[in-house]
Amino acid sequence: MRQQYDKVVTDPIHGQMRMDSYCWALIDTPQFQRLRDLKQLGSAYFVFPGASHNRFEHSLGVGHLANMQAMHLHHLQRDLDMDQFDIKCVTLAGLAHDLGHGPFSHIFDGHFIPRVRPGSNWKHEDASERMLEHAVKANGLTDDQISEDELKFIKALIRGHESNGSANQKQFLFDIVNNKRNSIDVDKFDYIGRDSLYLGMKCGFDYQRSMQFTRVVDNQICWNKNEALNLNELFHTRYNLFKQVYCHKVGKTVELMLTDVLCLADEHLGISAAIDDNEQYTYLTDAILREIERSKAPELKDARALMKRIRLRDLYRCADTFLLPTEMATRVTKQNFTKERILAYATESEMNEIRKSRTEIYTDYLVLSWCFGKENPIDRCRFYNKFDVDTSFTLSRSQLSQFIPHVFQEITLRVFVSKDDRVAVTLQNVFRRFIDNLESEYPASADPAHLPVPENITVPMYSESSFDSGGTLDARFQETRRILFAESSRGGVVVNSSDAGVAVVNGMTELLGIEQEEPESVRKEKFRTPTKKTGSAVVLERASSGMTSSESPNVALVPGTKKKMNGPSVLFGEVGSVGDTVVSVGASPQPLIPLRRGMNAPIGEARLPLTPRRMKGIADLPDPERYVQFRQDSPQKKRARRDIASDDDS
């Protein structure tokens, strides 16, 4: 196969990079050129002056490496039947993989969009596909440059898989740009090498050697087994970059401030609206900050004041950090690590000082890993031996080195304040008292992993009418830190309450709980209804021990509305305390049973004993085999069939 190159780019990382004419057809478009105005490391540039490189040169580097990897496999293994179509699409996927990034990269889709558009699932990867399609159509690229079939395949390569579920015969091509198997791809090769160079840090990973020792075995890219330690260094270097640079505490304060600036300016400038308009998004870059600073609009007064603080280095403060012990990881979560829990350990004078300062308190639940949580990513890689290149295998830790770590994930708790150092010191003292009482604040008994699974729980069947206005209204409530199993006269629901507070309201006639306590006095805690919330429901009251439904007839908002529900209702899911977002309102359309970790699941997934009564309920479903996975001749199933048959005869 012969390729015609027409331009060469000199790069500080890869040297001379040759680009074919179809590459320049995409590069020379406004959609690609906007990457010149997007900093690769976002807020880190405010901390590390050397981090001045942009998404533009990174994308060129990824396209170059994608082409190198594809050409290497093509020349090494002719039996793969790779053609010009494959190499062209892989190269263009490398070039276009970051087209969808917004201002300051991950700040935009990771923090800004979730705040101004709660519930939105917008991601820059999806935007990259849309921007690529827009670049092709808006600039009139011909089929010789990028055809319709090529565009479809390029978008799948950016995504890392084919959305239609069809099995492409060359699945190894998806391992090059966005590797979903083990996360080793040319995107990491470039940004780890490029970021290390511009930051002045040493990089021990040799990507060129790694690429030279790749081959395809069983439709998957594999490495020579001698490359295992080199790949291990890749993930170790990536962790160091996240620990020392990407998640630097000062960089995080700038990130919080930039997010606040964008949120303050969004209503006037319509920043978030650009994600719905490809043409408008083409001109949305880091330059939005200069536009805010230049503006004289009174609506941007607060945003300009915050930007001035950034320019004067009057930044938010990191009050304190704490590395969470491994055994506490299942108890302290992002959802229950809140500023309210921390401030509960403040004295009256400290609370008065914090209120008087009008400071904002931010919590940060920082999870760092080697890519796959607690798992060693090398365990997901497959290797070959030079004496048998057609057989792949995995390598255990004992086959690599005794120095390979046993822990691959850490969690750090951090708190930040938006005001001066005096408030930061006060919050630091409060936070350290909170840390000293971490065991009592998050006891092991409250961890769902430590809860026993009941042997015989009657699982009622539910329908949408199980809790309508005709339901019984004499329910009583149990406040506990354990999982509650609730059953009513007309149906029931399994409730997971991981924290003190009631997640069940109205429609209950009986509560079957673990470690039930005597009812306490009735208490209510009122909360104001949010005025600009849409698409979500919020708990308005907190029902405590002994409260009846007649005392609290309506305590929920219907999702997507601002009206209270009429009649009894049930809240189920992860709803544990006042102010939490309600996951669901109403009865479940499927039977729910308790699992060990407090989750709800269809019958059959919990592996609990199925009594004839349960089987009777399952038989009423349209597809009972979907819920019960037993052998055809199992004694349980035979007995249940006999009971069902006898009930039908009667």
From TrEMBL:
Chain intervals for the UniProt region annotation (Disordered): 614-650
Classification via SMART domains: HDc
HD domain mapped to chain residues: 55-192
Example GO BP: dGTP catabolic process
CDD domains: HDc (cd00077)
GO annotations of cellular component type: nucleus
One matching Pfam family: HD
Gene Ontology terms, MF aspect: dGTPase activity
The organism's place on the tree of life at top rank: Eukaryota
Name by which UniProt lists this protein: HD domain-containing protein
Lineage of producing organism: Eukaryota, Fungi, Fungi incertae sedis, Chytridiomycota, Chytridiomycota incertae sedis
